[in-house]
Request: fold
Amino acid sequence: MPATYTLPAAVTSPIEQCAWNLHVMLWKELKEKVTAVREVLRHHGLLYPPEGPEVIVPDQLRWARRAWYSLARFSAEGNQRFLTPFDSKSGEPTGPRMEIPSLFLEAPPAECRRLAHQILSDHARSVRDAKIKRLQNELELLQAA
Reply:
């Protein structure tokens, strides 16, 4: 028996109904994985702060900041999964469509959590190395002056 889903009152066209059904099915498929990655971001204090130069989230995890059910619409093309940030009040997209990396699609939730930790630690290491390099360059300039 096919699954039935409750549609929002504003959804009237068959195309919107199909898109909503796909969103709900993908949400159910990805729910535990999305939650695992969001927990890691929350643990590191990267889930809720606004974007800015001081808040640097790796590109592989940027999608997870916007991936909560009421703030996103999930879609698919073949084996790829996408997330579009969405304003539930206005009913309009609030940003560009983001691809969910395939490494998160193929992994169980515990592995998604481990991958997110690994990506964050690698990113922190590269940011730290870049700061050290910049400070070394500034020191060389000061010594040369």
Notes: The two ends are 78 Å apart (CA to CA). The mean pLDDT is 82.
